[in-house]
Amino acid sequence: MNFINPTKGLLDLDKMFDDIIEFIKDDKDSSYKLMIGTDSQPGRVICFVSAVIIYREGKGARYYYRKFQHKKIPSLRQRIFMEANYSIELANLLSAKFEKMGKTDFNIEIHLDVGENGKTKDIIKEVVGMVTGCGFDAQVKPDSYGASKVADKYTKSM
């Protein structure tokens, strides 16, 4: 699984994690949030982009993303649940890496591309329940910028 960082280029999962740890070690006194969001763009095939953002609260962030394709998915509902699932899978991988380091209190947010306005308002409870049931905090629009801004930016160029 490879990710792209706009500054550092292509990184595998381990190198991305090491870079996140380095970013945190650079300013140990700050508070951090790790945000993961996935967005998709339908077409002949569906372009998915998962973004990982390490946010140093009040002092900037660093992000990474990965793009991948999937065959056409029949409904918006299925696509939204797939986006959430891809984010949860990634959160589980990173959470396990933090646990190996003895860091069990690291808060990971899943940013969902759903909101009160638009076609996704009817599935907010279900998809948020799926995320929180997996032990992660869920954010929806307008607070889910990991999915609706960062990941969305890269779904447009395939």
TrEMBL record:
InterPro entries: Phage_KVP40_Orf299 (IPR007405). Pfam families: RNaseH_like (PF04308). This is RNase H-related nuclease YkuK (DUF458 family).
